[in-house]
Amino acid sequence: MSAADPDRNSWVRKAGGWCLLAAGLAGCVLPVIPGIPLALAGLIILARDYAWAKTALRKAKRSYVSMRRRSRAKRPSRPIVPAGGSPAGSEAGDS
Known about the structure:
By secondary structure, the chain is mostly helical. It has a domain at 6-67. It has helices at residues 6-27, 35-46, 51-74. The longest helix is centred in the middle third of the chain and has 24 residues, at 51-74. The protein is elongated, with a radius of gyration of 23 Å.
């Protein structure tokens, strides 16, 4: 079996994807491990071999885009205030 064997590469890729997915799911419960990035990385790797992973990845992307749109729509536009605290265009001596 050579290093470029497709069966071995497939097995290693699947094992790595499953490990990342398991670590990501554990990270959703444990405070030390970043769960969502690891779970997404595992889904990205597994999506090449499994249809359910591709579907889950599409759903995750859709929900991310939806949340991003909602958060931008709810964000009020505020004037930019410099570090001094007075609004832009007015000087401290203006009265």
